[in-house]
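Write out the 3D structure for:
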Amino acid sequence: MKLTINYKTRASKVLNFSIEEVEEYAKRVKGHLNKCMWESDTLTVNQIIQSIFIIKDIQDKQIQREAKELQVKNPILRRYQHDIKLMSHNGLGSNRIAKELRIKHSVNISASTVYRYLKGEENAVT
């Protein structure tokens, strides 16, 4: 039996990142190290240490995204934002998401509000 290790999942647990963020980290570190190799033939300790700051940058982005989610003014969106994102991730459009919320949770929210929320313009004036 072959033992397979899913390094992305393992790294996401260790760093407390999502798998997409682990992939972003890997791409950025690869680019950083490639750039360092173009500049000189050998890697120095400082160049490797500089790649660690990419983790801090991704963590800052994580904090900003979480803070933005807490700033949602619409109480319905704030309450069901996890469901809305999940349905959007599953490929549903804003009309279908509004309909599903109406059916499952008995809340009335317009499809345009859901659309603006998913675009990141939830607090824009209509």
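DSSP finds six helices and no strands in the chain.
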